[in-house]
Specification:
There is one protein chain. The protein has 252 residues and is of the alpha/beta class. It has nine helices and seven strands, in the order E-H-E-H-E-H-E-H-E-H-H-E-H-H-H-E.
Length: 252
């Protein structure tokens, strides 16, 4: 498994958690990294860590729910690094745990804006650059929630991630002939700031943990290593699929 020298990866949600871990893993392998996140302080810290590993980083403060901002961000990154080889759409959050009947229009719209539209906008912005080179890999973050529906806590989030999974499949099949691969990862619970930001209660956290046969949550680095593998030359025939990473849990 290897990356070609001086590859360029664009990562949204790079200020913390899975996005930051993935940025550092790609930097370890010699890739230059565009780090994008709405958290200016966090994304700058990630970029500093990437630079400390000997790779080049570009830190961009960006709200992925704004199409024009995403387009500008991608143009800036492409101009700075010459091309974009990989896109990892890590930005996303459940925003708020809620029962289905309590999900109002505001929560539904914000959930889809961040988790689905942010991914959609980034793919549409990056794909023309990849098509020019007839090469590129896009990896999106879906969720186990899309498989089980998120009953009782996150039907809104599961629906948005289900849309991510469907869009990934469609983009992959439409552009396979163009040298583009598109995949998604469907994690179970991972130890990141995600749960705290969604106000996940201790009771819900225990339910998640009790459902995992391995008896633990995943680590961000375990997802990052998978993203690296999916982008490497070891996976040239892999596209239009999602990979479940869940310690055996999340199915009920």
């Amino acid at each position: 498994m290897r990356l070609e020298s001086e590859m360029r990866v664009f990562i949204t949600g790079a200020a913390s958690g899975i996005g930051r871990a993935t940025a550092l893993i790609f930097a370890r392998e010699g890739a230059n990294v565009v780090c994008a996140d709405i958290n200016e302080t966090g994304v700058k810290e990630t970029a500093e860590k990437v630079n400390a590993l000997g790779s080049q980083a570009l830190a961009l403060e960006i709200d992925v729910t704004k199409r024009a901002a995403v387009n500008d961000m991608v143009e800036l990154a492409a101009n700075a690094f010459g091309r974009i080889d990989f896109l990892f759409n890590s930005a996303g959050a459940a925003l708020k745990r809620s029962k289905f009947l309590d999900v109002d229009d505001d929560l539904l719209e914000r959930t889809f804006d961040l988790n689905f539209k942010g991914t959609w906008y980034a793919m549409q912005a990056v794909l023309p650059h990849m098509l020019k080179n007839r090469f590129g890999v896009i990896v999106n973050v879906a969720s186990m929630a899309a498989k089980r529906g998120g009953p009782g806590t996150s039907v809104h989030y599961a629906a948005a991630k289900g849309a991510v999974h469907s869009a990934t499949l469609g983009v992959a099949r439409e552009h396979a002939k163009d040298g583009i691969r598109c995949l998604s990862i469907s994690p179970g619970p991972i130890k990141t700031p995600f749960q705290a930001s969604a106000n996940t209660t201790p009771d819900i956290m225990k339910r998640f943990l009790d459902d995992i046969p391995m008896g633990r949550f995943g680590e961000p680095e375990e997802i990052g290593e998978l993203v690296l593998f999916m982008c490497s030359d070891a996976c040239n025939f892999m596209t239009a699929d999602t990979v479940f990473v869940n310690g055996g849990g999340g199915w009920r």
